[in-house]
Amino acid sequence: MEDDGELDEGPPLAIEIPGASDPNRRPVDGGASVGVTVITGYLGAGKSTLVNHVLNSQHGKRIAVILNEFGEEIGVERAMINEGEGGDLVEEWVELANGCVCCTVKHSLVQALEQLVQRKERLDHILLETTGLANPAPLASVLWLDEQLESSVKLDSIVTVVDAKNLRLQLNERRDSSSFPEAFLQLAFADVVILNKVDLVTLEATGALEELEKEIHGINSIAEIIRTVRCQVDLSTILDRQAYDATRVAHLEALLQENQSLSGSELHDNGVRTLCICEPRKVDLNKVRSWLEEILWDKKYGMDIYRCKGVLSVSNSNMLHTLQAVKEIYDIVPARKWKDEENPMNKIVFIGHNLNEDVLIDSLRVCAEATS
What we know:
The longest helix is centred in the last third of the chain and has 13 residues, at about 355-370. The strands form 3 sheets. A 9-stranded mixed β-sheet has the order 1-6-7-3-8-2-9-10-11, sandwiched between helices. A 5-stranded antiparallel β-sheet has the order 12-16-13-14-15, sandwiched between helices. It has helices spanning about 45-55, 110-120, 135-145, 165-170, 180-190, 200, 210-220, 250-260, 285-295, 355-370, and strands spanning about 15, 35-40, 65, 80-85, 90, 95, 100-105, 125-130, 155-165, 190-195, 225, 270-280, 305-315, 320-325, 330-335, 345-355. The protein has about 375 residues and is of the alpha/beta class. The radius of gyration is 22 Å and the shape is globular. Helix 9 (about 285-295) runs antiparallel to helix 10 (about 355-370). Mean pLDDT is about 75; it is low at about 1-30, about 70-90 and about 265-270. GO terms for molecular function: GTP binding; hydrolase activity.
């Protein structure tokens, strides 16, 4: 449950949708994919406050919000679930005053998403709120490359809400253990970190937020950190991020440039962290695929990779290829031609546990040796 500071907002005004199953309701525009933002974070961090902010804001967007079973703080979903014939769960979607639609689920979020897609209503975006103890990796993997869903929806980004006052305690809970609390995983998979309740930290110590942001970026340097009080955030900063769009090369290259100097030499523990490696020579694409599968699938070098982003310079090709991976699933896509003024280069950022920089560099180098 959210703490008391997160419960004093009134629920959004809700009205039932007349004829929710009416086949004449407007379909999804032009068959374009609808972006899905996964909202995760520890219990009490402020996820419900963020969802309330979306549901109450006059943003002019039609956003579907799928809430988890702990979402009763929102105040609209208990009336939306009832037993159907044979005891099957039936979801009632409720339309809010600002045009958003909302429901809660008692089963798989993906099943609820499929039901939403089947309704074929026009939507601008979809939010999925996970439980406070959820590891976002399985859901992200399914949404990113699921063939059944990809024509209608696409994973846009993972937004992790953290409690600025209590995050360090949550991270230190088992820092030296071989297993890590979900706080690490939720940060590791994040594209955006909402550092909430910053007002409670700035009152205590000067520079505390800067130190906390440094610690977050030590775990995941590719995530954007947004400071908030009561999750009051500009929605343009968390929606339509297109973090998994292989064609957003400029944004990906900017991330890689920022991370190019990041080295594990200054990190003395084997915790969850970010590393960036480079290889100037062209690589054999088949060898790279085998290399990734050994690392991601076989855990050949004892590393546990959570996220991976990069650009590749591939043999016998003038195309810049983008690389993304979420746990065991990866994708390599030719994005565009290398520009004349560019120096083709392989740059890959890894986020994970027990990362070994020397092993990653040496093993990637093997993929390029035959093309020297």
